Amino acid sequence: xxxxxRIRIINFSYxxxxxxxxxxxxxxxxxxxxxxxxxxxxxxxxxxxxxxxPIVPEIRIQGRRINAFFRKKRxxxxxxxxxKLDAAGGYLLTGIGMVAAEVSGVxxxxxxxxxxTFTSRYTGSNDFDLANIELIKQSGNxxxxxxxxxxxxxxxxxxxxxxxxxxxxxDDDGDRYRKRLAEFGIAQDEWRNIIAKINxxxxxxxxxxxxxxxxxxxxxxxxxxxxxxVIFKDRAEAHRLEEMLEGLxxxxxxxxxxxxxxxxxxxxxxxxxxxxxxxxxxxxGLEEQKNYGAKxxxxxxxxxxxxxxxxxxxxxxxxTLDNIELERKRINLEDRSHAYWLRRDEYLLAASRLAxxxxxxxENEEKLEITKRSLKILQAAGLRDELxxxxxxxxxxxxxxxxxxxxxxxxxxxxxxxxxxxxxTQEILQSLESVLTRLKEEKGEQETLRxxxxxxVSDLGNNLRKFEGEKGSxxxxxxxxxxxxxxxxxxxxxxxSRNLLGELAxxxxxxxxxxxxxxxxxxxxxxxxxxxxxxxxxxxxxxxxQEIQGVGEETxxxxxxxxxxxxxxxxxxxxxxxxxxxLQKFGFNFELRxxxxxxxxxxxxxxxxxxxxxxxxxxxxxxAKESLFSLNNxxxxxxxxxxxxxxxxxxxxxxxxxxxxxxxxxxxxxxLAANPVLPYALILARQDIELLAQAIKNLTLRRAIPIxxxxxxxxxxxLLADRWVQTAEGIFLVCLYEGRIFDHSGLEKLEEELKRKxxxxxxxxxxxxxxxxxxxxKQTICSRFAFKADYRYDLAKKKTASxxxxxxxxxxxxxxxxxxxxxxxxxxxxKQKIQTVIESQQKAQKAVELFEAWIEQENDYxxxxxxxxxxxxxxxxxxxxxxxxxxxxVSFQKKIEGFTLEIEQKKIEVRDIRKKYNTYxxxxxxEFIAGTVEELEERLQALKAQYSGEIELLEKRKTELQSxxxxxxxxxxxxxxxxxxxxxxxxxxxxxxxxxxxxxxxxEFNKKLQNKRFAATGIESAAKEACRxxxxxVRKLGAESPLGQEDIKGDFPGRRHKLAxxxxxxxxxxxxxxxxxxxxxxxxxxxxxxINKLKVEPEKGFRPEQDVKSQxxxxxxxxxxxxxxxxxxxxxxxxxxxxxxxxxxxxxxNIGNIFKGLDQLWDKAEMGYDDFYYxxxxxxxHQDKLRELIKLHENQLFNLERNKxxxxxxxxxxxxxxxxxxxxxxxxxxxxxxxxxxxxxxxxIELALDSHDAAGLRMKDxxxxxIAKVREETRQEKSEEEVKKAIAxxxxxxxxxxxxxxxxxxxxxxxxxxxxMQNSSLKTWExxxxxxxxxxxxxVYFSVLSALMAYTRSRTLExxxxxxxxxxxVLVMDNPFGPISxxxxxxxxxxxxxKHRTQLICLSDLKQNSILNCFNLIYMLKVRASAIGxxxxxxxxxxxxxxxxxxxxxxxxxxIFRVSEHKQINLFD
Length: 1469
Description:
The protein is of the alpha+beta class. It is 67% helix and 9% strand. It contains 35 helices and 24 strands. Residues 422-449, 806-1012, 1183-1210 form a coiled coil.
């Protein structure tokens, strides 16, 4: 709505025409809020009513009609309102000219005002703007008011020239004026129904809201009705749902039999369907039971096979345990064999050491014996020498004795002795030289042997160094190989073992090689399979892409097909709904839409009836108009034609009706009693009767007109009855005149009745005209409906097929997409697997190569090992040989030293002998005397010595010597030597000491050797015993002999540990397997206890879980549960079937036949899937038959059901629309108030909707209930009016809203303004009504009113296509500040007005600052008394508080013309 820019009032009087407004203009400067301050009694309500006239002509305020101000006025009054249009649309001038009816130029207008309204649109000053329009002009000091008729003709003429910007509307053209105002957003309904009501009473805003004590009343009377006025354009639309329900009920009644039968069938189908559903559930349960049984059977098979496998596994494990035991025995045998070989080696070593000790002991003993023999020989030589000395001494003594006894042959003896000494020393010297030569030769031989031994030792040292170097190299090679072997074993996880000889078993090598190659081959096969699988997946992915593309193209094509079908269906249904609405509206059978001939005939008949009604309405309208016109001119009973003829002929006349009116009631009654024809008569002068007779020769009338002369008025006629008269000729006349025309009150009632009749007839005329035009239009629409009866069915079938195909395609597309995604994931996994397999394959290939390389090095290793053994043996032999050689060197050295010592002794002996030889070499040959040199020397010395005399001493000495000689001979004989052994030995005491020393050393060494030999003997005996015991231990294991070293693999603890681990693992596994077998047997017993009587096929592809016990328990429990449930459900189904049969068998023949066919199947049905499936098939078949039967009924009731759906849908949409509209009102009531950081919701309507689907179900149930109620009302033969009232109540929009929400309690909360804004809050409407003060209530009422007005404007502009957020409105209020003058209430009031862009024009007598401060523009109105007479004049003073906020349009200001600046009209001239 635009805002008011200016208001101009011209020539208006009130207060019994004593108070005048000559020409006053109120300028609101583009739509400013304004306060018109006028004292009480000054005419505020009159000004308000006057301002309403250009908008709503003749509106009453406070029960006062506007014509009350024009009873004494002859000049017209003009009220002009200039509106500032929204969005720079310029200005609109709306005006009204009003004058008393009797001075409007029309005869006999009484007690009413005649008016015309006009509009003028402009953007700037012109001759027809508010200030310059020529409705008043000044002539000197006189203001001339343009007469009503001239002003109207001026505006009408202007409209003809510029109909776009100007409009002139007579008082009977209100509808066109209303539409003209609506074009500019000025709603008459808003001014009439809201703003006028606010101003209709003191505190009008309080009064219209005060009676609404609760939220429901406010919602019903204001919010719902406001929405109804906005969304319903006419009465037909507002009552459309009522008409639909009425027609729907009528259709229901017409199809009662089909409905009842269909209800029985529907009801039975529902419970039958429940039976089918229950049976499906039972079948599902049986299927589930069967599936669980199959799972249990599969589980049983699995457990049975697993038990067999476990038993086999146990047997294998036992065999493996036996093998482990054999292997353990083998290891024990190997261990004991190894121990035997160790003991044997120890024994051999001990034996060799014992032999070596014995050899060394023997050699030492032999050496000791030799040394002792040498000692004995040397001792024997000493004893020999001593014997010789003794013997020599004895010989000397004998000689001395002889000399002493005989002194003869002295010289010969000496020569003989000397010669004998010469020969003896010569012989000894030769012997010594021969011995010396031999000793030197032997020493040379020993030195040669020692040199050879030194050379051999040196060679052995070189060989040892060479062997040690080779040994180090071989050991390094061996360590490298063994390190490499450990790496290989670690990398390849090999468990190959070597025997004591360090050899690998050939079968184990082949086994390891086979496993590595097999792994490589398996990996190659797996890689090949994965590659082939990837190729297949990629190919499938490509096929899936192509198929998806094909499905997409097919889906696109099918969507186009479906879209075309939906469009065709929509077009069909739209036309069908349109046709249905048309046919329903006109009461035609809906089936006629397919019968064009009958439909055309029905429309022709309807048009014929409408034409007749239209003609009747025209007749009634013309009669009423003519009667009203005639009544106003005092000629109700006289036709217009005769009056016009009299006027044309200038014949004076008076109607009997007018004549009677001018008479007193008594005379009138007397005249009427005498002559009832008088009201119909035309009274003329006698001379004019002849003129009339001449004039009416060519006139034809439909009724007789009595003509009377004034002189004949006293005549009377024969009266037969009341208003029955008879002429003298016997003609009867019935004079049913309208008697109320002669009574003032009756005349007014008659006038009102005729006006109402004229209005009704005009409405009927318009209604029938519109209806006829509508019928013609609808007939044209129906003629375009050229579809066959099965067209919609075919479309639905095609649509269903298309939707199914689309769904199938969508499912296929989703499946393909899922498959593609699965393929993508699978390909990724395959890629990773292939990569992993390739890497594993490469590793396996490297493992094979590594293994082969390692095996190839095995020969080198064995060669190295053998060579190392040989080197070790060679080193050991060389070291032994070296030791022997070193011992030989020591022996050679000792022998050489012995020979050297002996040679030196022999040289001394030779030197001594040579010295003696030299003494006797000159001796003469003489008799050789036998004896040793010592003997011969002693004899010689004795010869030379002087002979003693003491024969006794000599004898004694001889005796001693002989005794000593005997003793020495005994000692010599004790030595056990032959004389040849020591005969040539020279006794040497030093050598004797050496020999004794050597013997002591050798004896000491011999003791050590003996100890070693004894120890070695003990060790050898122990080793021999240990070897025997080891061999015995081997035999205890059942072997005849120990294993060969090549058969012994060693690592007995490790192997025993592995075997122990394997044995423990296998034992534990056997225990677990046995336990598992026991558990499996128990589970199988548990399974067979439930499925042993059932022949159940095991489920294919069954995969047991890891915990089969829990799975079996769960399956058994579920099987038991579902079996019990199925049994219970089966029994319940059987009982329910019996109940259904008892309840429905006799209600319908078809239903009875169904039960007859099902009884046998029920009798045969047991708790088996097949029996119940056969029963389900028969039930489904009967269900389909029932559906077909119901379909037949539905086809019969198709229109009814569709109308029901339409009714439900329309009702749902209506409820939803009211829900949305209320939400809009609530949401758009937010206002930003001072003291609040956020906008405050002034009006909150709490609507709680659960869901649209639930609302649809509730609405469906409600419509069914409504149909039932209306049917019941109709059956009770209630009147049509009562039925319509019941329908209206059921279709009340609030009721539809309640059903939509599912709740009839809709709280309305309003914002209560408190002095402290922080304490302000929302309160329920009830609390606000009960607790708020008058001012607070006023703000609440104003906020509600503003929200509703804003809603009305917004929706109106929205419907017109305008911008709803730029609209504005005007609110004129008379004395609104009675209850509200506090600033904390006024500020929110104006904020609310500002938010809703509402211009407030308030009239008040209050002048508090709190009120004045709210307005920038104030008009102080005052009543000024005339200087002469009792007339008063309304004057005003404009006050602008802040000029900067005032914006005037220069386009208007340059032509402002203020009539108030001129002099006052002179009332007395």
